[in-house]
Amino acid sequence: MPEDGSWATIREFLVDTEPRIAPSRIDEMFSSREIVDMHGPLDIDAPYVRGEAVWFHRDLPAETEVPFDIPIVYRDDTLLVVDKPHFLPTIPRGGHILQTALVKLRLELDLPDLVPAHRLDRVTAGLVLFVVDPRARGAYQTLFQDRKVRKVYDAVAGVNPELEFPRTIVSRIIKDKYDFAAREVDGEPNAETLVELVESRNGLGRYRLSPTTGRTHQLRLHMNSLGLPIIGDDLYPHPTNRAVDDFTSPLRLLASELEFDDPISGLARRFTSSRTLEL
Q1: Which are the contacts of 146, defined by CB distance < 8 A and separation ≥ 6?
Q2: Is the distance from CB of 174 to CB of 185 less than 8 angstroms?
Q3: Alpha helix segments (H runs only) across the chain
Q4: At what angle do helices 23-31 and 10-17 cross, to 10 degrees?
Q5: Can you list the domains of the chain with their CATH numbers?
Q6: What is the pLDDT along the chain (279 residues), one digit of tens a residue?
Q7: Contact (Cβ atoms closer than 8 angstroms) between residue 69 and residue 82
Q8: Alpha carbon of 111 to those of 78, 83, 271: distances in Å?
Q9: Phi-psi category of 126—alpha, beta or left, where left has phi over 0 and alpha has psi -120 to 50?
Q10: Which residues are 207's β-sheet partners?
């Protein structure tokens, strides 16, 4: 607690400095002996002591349940590969804590040391590789950082008969820390994607996207740069508001294939998603 504080009690200090916690909730935590200092639980009238420390667990924010399963594609003592659904974040961030793939899998599979080797955006479905054995984390995370994993994505977007495929898109993508959206700018390219049109029907096309880099929102930006934004994209070309519990129109983007040489066993690994995107 601050050395220059002038509060009479610790309760007064918490009420003033923790505006997101209702005073009634602070009182409940005192009553249930949840607020402690180095000597143990504190009473509600405990005096404020400058420079001392108190501890308590903040309540987790209410979260909307993401009502979709996380199928397991592969599991051994080292690796876990899952088929993440749309709308489920890979890791805790912001208001998403319990409703994330990492937390759900740790609890459901009793794997407290589980960590992801890479991440997918919340709105993207498909393959995510997790590391079960803590001793192997560095090897698999480095594999992704060094771009030694071949990734393939499926996407659904509009079609333009004037565009020829396959084509490779190369651009420079940047994202400011406090902006939701990334953007393409002039300068040395740092993002590359091979785009192939697999089939088209009723004005929509199924595309196979093979990135050789992993910039934020790279695939969404590159498709948008063709004038073919991915169906269901709430950010490109224009941001739209979607209720957090609206699961009706997912982004039609799927991480469908992962392929690499296993840095531990030396085996050639290839995993494919069982999910499909409807045209």
Answers
A1: none
A2: yes
A3: 10-17, 23-31, 101-109, 137-145, 218-225
A4: 140
A5: 1-59 (no CATH), 72-272 (3.30.2350.10)
A6: 888 888 999 999 999 998 878 999 999 999 999 999 888 899 999 999 998 889 888 777 778 899 999 999 999 999 999 999 999 999 988 778 789 999 999 999 999 999 999 999 999 999 999 999 999 999 999 999 999 999 999 999 999 999 999 999 999 999 987 788 999 999 999 999 999 999 999 999 999 999 999 999 999 999 999 999 999 999 999 999 888 889 999 999 999 999 999 999 999 999 999 999 988
A7: no
A8: 11, 17, 21
A9: left
A10: 155, 197
The pair of structure tokens assigned to 147 is: 């771009």
Q: Which two tokens stand for residue 29?
A: 């935590």
Strands (E), 223-277: 253-261, 268-272
Q: Which residues carry out catalysis?
A: 121
Question: What one-letter code names the amino acid at 146?
Answer: D
d(CA 30, CA 226): 59
**How many Å apart are CA 42 and CA 262, to the nearest integer?**
53
